[in-house]
Fold each of these.
Amino acid sequence: MTAKRVGVLAIQGDFEAHARALARIGAEAVLIRDAKELDGVDALILPGGESTTIAKGMERLALYEPLRAFAESGRPVLGTCAGAILLARAVENHPVRSLALIDVTAVRNAYGTQVDSFVAPADAGAAPGLEGLRCVFIRAPRLRDPGAEVEVLARVDGEPVLLRQRNVFAATFHPELTDDARVHALLLDGAR
């Protein structure tokens, strides 16, 4: 695979862990804090962190429209945890402004507080190549009411945790906190 340049929104959150995960699979991470930095990027990650803080930063930096245009160009986008919230059509439990790029409702902190964090394997029946995926949940959202165009790629305890709508992927967990690069590779596959 040719090395790809992947933008990682670097307002707040675990963007450095995503950069390390991308490096492990031969991709170059480009930290995004300005719309101009999206030029020449093949794919984009909206990391986990605190969705209110990231949303305020996106507003302050005038990134909502450039990020939406990036996704609408067909290039792949992955949102993890808070990033998944920011991609959702609707947000519940202290709503934040979202990009409305994937037809789901995100329920913030639906699994509980920081002390309720956990690790679980994906249920049997995950999409081919994702079997046994180890999922790290930290103050994770739930993604409810997926629309007809949304494909559920993985579930944990029957709940959708990794979804795709065309070129947009949303994960309620943190794939960057494991050595398993399959979710990042899935993003790169979309950038071919």
Amino acid sequence: MLISHQGKYPNIHPSAYIAPNALVCGDVTVGPGVRVLFGAQLIAEGGAITIGAECIIMENAVLRSNLRHSLSLGNNCLVGPQAHLVGCTVADEVFIATGASVFHGATLGQGCEVRINAVVHIKTRLAPGETVPIGWVAVGTPANILPPDQHDKIWEIQKPLDFPLTVYGFERDQADMIKITRRLAEALGTHADDQILT
């Protein structure tokens, strides 16, 4: 399904395939030979989403952008089922496996692998060819790649990256769930005027 959002329309290359129940919303450019499979969602909310040539976006993957964080996917990338990417920059030939997450401001160099259920945290930079193992967490610039049981070390690196400010626009000491949900509700409310194109 193609949907306009805030006057922006998806631009789908004629050789691309969008599954009937996939959703492409707003300022999304889908390059030649791309395959967006069943249940996948590409949702541009203020920032653009650009998908390079011959990318595969598997079932139920979610790719999002927002006003402060556009998303770009280079050529020949594969995004696995139920992966979640938001506001990140991904170079060519990157593999993002099932259930992996890549967050706001992250950058993945050419040929990186983010394996099953791995996480690339906000503002993290992976060098070309780097691998995040199954279930592990990449955090910081340059990336520290740590097992999930190293929460204290992950937090030590993650805390100064300031997730609440980066993602929601609130300083950490000012962020609470009332402010966050109200801001998100306001931003998401802009979908009320979306138009289904096809």
Amino acid sequence: MINSVRNTVLSVLNKNNYGYLSPSDFNLFAKQAQLEIYEEAFSGYNDKINQENVRTSGTGYANTRRQIEEVIEGFSSTNFLYNFSGNIFFSPSLTTTGDQYFMINKVLCYPTILDTGTNTSVVASQLVDSTALFTTLGISAGDIVVNTTTNATARVVSVSSNTVIVLTANIFTATPRNYAIIDSSLFKEADKVTLSKISMLLNSNLTSPSTLFPAFTQEGDKLSVYPTTLATTGQVQAQYFRLPKDPKWTYITLASGEPVFDQSQPDYQDFELPLEDEYKLVAKILEYAGMSIRETEVVQFGMTQEQMQQQQ
């Protein structure tokens, strides 16, 4: 889609000789346009909910709330949070979960650690510990295995013996590496509380967070999870809505200096929005381009297109 969007933008700009939009400028404008449309999906969802509450929304094929839900849920991601120290965990980020988050939807806590130890040999996608008692301890498929040295996580596929577990991912590539195995069948959703309220909860015997009723606070890029016994990577899992990846129109340069689209480049990234948002992207990028080249007609064209879309 990104090449189609760029060709349309260049066609509009070149029609009246407004100037040339370089690939680097286009990529910058494309990033901002995608972020705008992404955030508008959440505010648009709120508008649809309000319309439903006053019985002014459509049903069946006219139920546009479902369309917005599908777009938003396409950015849903679920990952275990890396432990920072004690009961403090890093929020989702490029360095931990591999993506930036827009909003944390819920946090799940797994309080029961079934076993800990150190691997004694390396086999691809397996945990091998010659001193372990995996079968005896009742470890089963689906349980969470954490390489606590690297914070990498995997699930149990099967328990081959007391000393060997088959995993969904190759998280043990060297020895010795410490591990923890966590019961996946016992979990609770944590309530988010404000920083001002958590002190009151912790000081009360009746309302203090427990493994049955966990809670968490958020401060900066970290989450504090209660009770404080939740202190290992693999015990706290977040379901969140990530930000879309930055789009990048990649190219090769011909002898004449003309860039030609090449999606085989390793840093190529298409838009992550659905195809029906292509016209929105074109309109918004034209607005940015118009401001860049100081052409009010281009900005007004883009704004007019946006207004027409909102009225539909």
